[in-house]
Write a structure and sequence with these properties.
Structural class: mainly alpha
Number of strands: 0
Shape: elongated
Largest sheet: none
Distance between the termini: 41 Å
Number of helices: 5
Oligomer: single chain
């Protein structure tokens, strides 16, 4: 999941639901007789839930413009002022195994050392 910017609406609804859960927890310890408020809170939560569902369903129906392919330039860019041939030889040298190159350049040193795998 990649991070995203804070959404004020989501934060507000999260705090409302946290408040309702806190109120419920307190009402389990302390007896409070407010049935009318309970129905209002339940109705409001259902209403906001339906609005959230409709918003989520509607947001998926947005039509995105069709992507048009763009023709790319056929030039080869190399870093710095190097010609492409020199750049390719440097990359090839970096990809080659240095132990093989050393053994080819110094056959007497390579045979004297035991090979470690």
């Amino acid at each position: 999941m990649k991070p995203h910017r804070m959404d004020g609406v989501s934060l507000t609804f999260g705090l409302i639901f946290l408040g309702v859960a806190f109120w419920w927890a307190i009402s389990r310890v302390i007896t409070v007789h407010l049935p009318a408020v309970g129905w209002i809170v339940a109705g409001a939560l259902i209403f906001f839930g339906v609005i959230g569902l409709l918003g989520a369903i509607r947001s998926n129906r947005r039509e995105e413009p069709a992507l048009v392919p763009v023709a790319a330039e056929a030039s080869i860019a190399t870093p710095g002022d190097l010609p492409p041939e020199m750049h390719a030889s440097i990359v090839q040298e970096l990809l080659d195994d240095p132990a093989v190159k050393f053994a080819q350049e110094n056959p007497e040193d390579a045979s004297a050392r035991p090979r470690q795998d």
